[in-house]
Amino acid sequence: MKKLIIVFFLLPFFVQAQLSPKNAETDLEVLAKNIVNQCANIQTDEIVFINGNVRDIELLENIAVNVRKNGAFPVLTVSSDRLTRKLFTEVPEKYDTQFPKLNMEIVKMMTTQINVTSGDTPGLLADIPPERFAIRNKAQQPVNDLYMKSSIKSVQLGNGLYPTKNRADQFEVPVDQLAKMFWDGINMDYNKLTSIGEKLTKKLTSGNTLKITHENGTNLSVKVTDCKPLISDGKVSSDRPGGAGRFVYLPAGEVFFAPVPGTATGTLVLDQFIFRGQTIEGLKLIFEDGILTSMNANSDIAVLKDYYDAQDDKFTEFSLVDFGINPKITVPKGSKLYTYVPAGTITLGIGNNFFADGDNNSNAGLHFHLTGSTVTVDNTALIDKGKLVN
Question: pTM of the full predicted structure?
Answer without folding.
Answer: 0.84
